[in-house]
Design a protein that fits this description.
This protein is an alpha+beta fold and 135 residues long. The chain has one domain. The protein has five helices and six strands; from the N terminus they run H-H-H-E-H-E-E-H-E-E-E. The protein has helices spanning 3-15, 18-28, 34-38, 62-71, 94-101; strands at 52-54, 77-82, 91-93, 108-113, 117-122, 125-130. A six-stranded antiparallel beta sheet has the order 1-6-5-4-2-3, sandwiched between helices. A hairpin with a 3-residue loop joins strand 4 (108-113) and strand 5 (117-122). Helix 4 (62-71) packs across helix 5 (94-101). It is globular, with a radius of gyration of 13 Å.
Length: 135
């Protein structure tokens, strides 16, 4: 499994509700169907809210979110699954990705640690997504 697949599987299996996981993995596996997923991210209804923390309004700036993610163990780079075709499918510096994404309302997952830590933004809000390692 390559890095892109690892991040995408991690996003879907960790942060999307279970009834949608198989379908989303199937669509992502077919490049011609990927757009069906990325277009749905603007008003994404399938976030698993058990692992999502809404970012407080006073911390909803790229620099603040960067610090929150770094404190939780994020590395310098992230992987983007995004409605924005310029970002989608790319691994880029986290700080740069946040500057591009925060406040744009474009549905975007930024996977920091595959299946464990991510940022998600859509037109409805901004969240830190986190799954702790199972004991």
């Amino acid at each position: 499994m390559n890095n892109q697949q690892e991040h995408e599987r991690g996003i879907i299996l960790s942060f999307v509700i279970s009834v949608r996981q198989d379908r989303y993995l199937e669509l992502l596996a077919k490049p011609e169907r990927r757009k069906a997923i990325t277009e749905s991210l603007a008003h994404f209804k399938y976030l698993d809210m058990r692992h999502a923390v809404l970012i407080p309004p006073r911390q909803q700036h790229a620099a603040d979110i960067f610090q929150l993610l770094r404190l939780k163990g994020a590395t310098e780079t992230c992987y983007a699954l995004s409605e924005d075709s310029e970002l989608d499918g790319k691994e880029i510096p986290l700080s740069e990705a946040l500057k591009e994404v925060v406040g744009c309302g474009m549905g975007t997952f930024l996977s920091c640690l595959a299946g464990r830590l991510a940022y998600f933004e859509d037109e409805d809000g901004r969240w830190i997504l986190e799954r702790r390692a199972e004991k």
